[in-house]
Structure formats: structure tokens, C-alpha cells
Amino acid sequence: MSSEPTGKESKEKPSFGEQVGAKASRNLKARRNSSGGVWFGLGMMGLIGWSVVVPTLLGAALGIWLDKHHPSTHSWTLALLVVGLAIGCINAWHWVDKEDRAMREEDKDE
Questions:
Q1: Model confidence at 23, in pLDDT bands (50, 70, 90)?
Q2: What pLDDT is recorded for position 5?
Q3: CA-wise closest residue to 48 among 15, 18, 92
Q4: What is the mean pLDDT of residues 26-43?
Q5: Phi, psi of 58 (to 5 degrees)
Q6: In the chain, helix, strand, coil percent, each to 5?
Q7: Quick one: residue 37, left, alpha or beta (phi over 0 = left, psi -120 to 50 = alpha)?
């Protein structure tokens, strides 16, 4: 007798244990791939927003201080505000890119 399943055996229903295992596997995969819902998305938006706002405000504050203590023909406040904004945008872009790479690696592993 051969150990290969015949056509009739391959069409049989999976056992109860196999069904439970498959369902548990699907649940675990869904939890890993879950984004966390609305609150998670709002939290990420806030985190990215703060990563732009903080350097912008620091640049503006430093610019105001420089304008008061070392006046010149050009505005330090405006210049450092733009520099802070650029640094904040680069910071946010790097953070989002890092998260995107991590998600792609996780998908590739599965």
C-alpha cells in the first residue's frame, strides 16, 4: 500500500484540531497586521506633527533672541523659522520612511 493520499482522502474535511489551528493562526496574523484603529492613527499624526512643530518653534525662539541681542539688516527670526521648519520636515520624513521600511520587512517575513 502506498502512503500517498488518494483523491478521495484529499477531499476530506480537515480535523477539528486543524480547523482550530488555522483559525488561531488567522487571528494572530490579523493582530500583527492591525494598525490599532483610529486612536493609533491620530497618535501617529500627532507624533509627526510635533516632530515638525518643535524644531520650527525652537528656530523661531532662537531667531527672536538673536534679533534682540544682535540686530542686523535681515531677520534672524524668519531665517531660523524656515531652517527649523526644514529640519522638522526632514525629521518627519525620516521617521515615516523608517516605519514604512519596518512594515515592508514585516510583510516580507510573512
A1: confident
A2: 54
A3: 92
A4: 71
A5: -65, -40
A6: 80, 0, 20
A7: left
Q: Which amino acid is at 79?
A: A
Residue type, 67: D
- The DSSP H or E segment spanning 102 is helix 76-109
Quick one: angle between helices 76-109 and 37-69, nearest 10? 150
Output phi, psi for 5, to 5 deg: -70, 145
Cell numbers for 19:
480547523
- Identity (one letter) of the amino acid at 28? L
Look-up: residue for cell 500517498? 4
Report the alpha-carbon distance of residue 66 to residue 16 in Å, rounded. 74
Residue 35 confidence (pLDDT) = 61
At residue 77, the 3 state secondary structure works out as helix
| Radius of gyration (C-alpha) of the chain in whole angstroms | 28
CA-based nearest residue to 91, from 56, 41, 42, 43: 56
